[in-house]
Prior knowledge:
- By secondary structure, this protein is of the alpha+beta class.
- It folds into two domains: 5-44 and 158-222 and 337-390, FAD/NAD(P)-binding domain (3-Layer(bba) Sandwich), CATH 3.50.50; 70-155 and 226-335, 2-Layer Sandwich (D-Amino Acid Oxidase, Chain A, domain 2), CATH 3.30.9.10.
- It is 28% helix and 26% strand.
- The chain is built from nine helices and 19 strands.
- The strands form three sheets. Strands 1, 2, 9, 10, 11, 12, 18 and 19 form an eight-stranded mixed sheet that branches. Strands 6-7-5-14-15-16-13-17 form an eight-stranded mixed sheet.
- Helix 2 (65-85) packs across helix 5 (158-171).
- The protein starts with a strand and ends in a 17-residue tail after the last helix.
- The site of flavin-adenine dinucleotide has 40 residues, from helix 1, strand 3, strand 13 and strand 17.
Amino acid sequence: MAARFKYIIIGRGMMGAAAARHLSQWTDGAALIGPPEPEDRLGHDGVFASHYDEARITRTFDGDLAWGTFAARSLDRYAAIEEESGIRFYTEAGCLFAGPEPKRPTDYLRRALDVSDTLGLEVEEIAPSDLQSRFPQFSFAPHLAGFYEHRRAGHINPRALIKAQAKLAAGNGATLIDATVTSVRDAGSHVEVICGDEIHTAEKVLVAAGAFTNFNGLLPRPVDMRVAPRTVVFYELGDREAAIFGSMPSTIVFGETDEDHVYILPPVGYPDGRTYLKLGGDTESRSFERLEDIVSWFHSEGDSVEREKLAAIAEKLMPALAGRPVTSAPCVASFTPSSHPYIGYTQSRRIAVLTGGNFVAAKSSDELGRLGAVLLRDGEIPESDFGSRLAPAFR
Ligand SMILES: Cc1cc2nc3c(=O)[nH]c(=O)nc-3n(C[C@H](O)[C@H](O)[C@H](O)COP(=O)(O)OP(=O)(O)OC[C@H]3O[C@@H](n4cnc5c(N)ncnc54)[C@H](O)[C@@H]3O)c2cc1C
């Protein structure tokens, strides 16, 4: 039987939409299958995603060379994607890390400085004595130093980036299908992608379903990946606070322990017409094994204890936020044991996987999508693209 499509990508998220754009530049016969964001989160019982938001931090300063490279290559292409799609998604607000000056070679900030040297990044080091006066919106602990990427950093709108990627993929001839895949089967000469009553066929399939990759029988065997809840806190800003925080960069603050790390997005306008400053942290509480538990999590407003903790950190760090209305929302992050994304074939030479964002992949999604597309087209990812580090592990 002749397959209808050459390639099917499952998951119209950050990586899948990027993969579809790249593949559709090189070949005909690509399809991108995935549901749109649910309009009614609380009434939706299907799959969700990790990108239902208006802002994600983008930067190249990173403790890992592969992640830094993926981010830099993606940043190189933001302007072209914006121009060709007519959809703006990138704000060059800069990105500041505030943390204790690194002492050991293995400290994250030391490794990030080494990666910056390797990649030739422009990162300004700011002494603890100068940090406060440079960023007066904050009340930093006196021992914190700054590591500031003024250019080629800031934030992207993940919804808008996906829209741009999908628009360009469709413009190149890719077929977009609004559906949730309920199973995938290697039928010997081709792959069957089943969406309820409908069956789509392809020569090869790339599963890019984010935190939902191990559900719905998308893979022959599940990947070794942990799906963990994350709570996001939103401060609704009035004109006064919007003015105070309006010029801040995207900011990541390292506390004494990993549990105290927070990331903060500058004020961003949301679809409800209001302006919010958003923050989140890295607290590890549990992971999800069952789809129904992830769905229940998305029906919540996140974890109330985590919300209180983040709000306390926020108001200590940014006293002008005190008294503003605070809300929270749920999200999920997918962690691999290697801390690198998975981009490789499964037990079937016709079914590949692209997932494992490790809480940092939004900014780099265009390059990760490109690598997923290279894998389908060429059958492998070269070592110059970190190929062996991206090999998926299975359970
Ligand atoms: C709270 C939070 C904050 C974050 N902040 C940042 C940040 O500041 N900077 C950064 O770079 N990264 C950040 N990230 C990480 C980033 O958002 C993720 O790494 C990224 O979204 C992962 O992309 P993905 O394509 O793998 O998954 P997703 O974007 O989640 O896309 C997966 C897609 O698959 C679809 N899907 C699932 N199951 C099926 C199915 N059965 N059939 C069809 N389609 C299916 C879903 O509908 C979804 O659209 C953050 C993540 C969270 C949770």
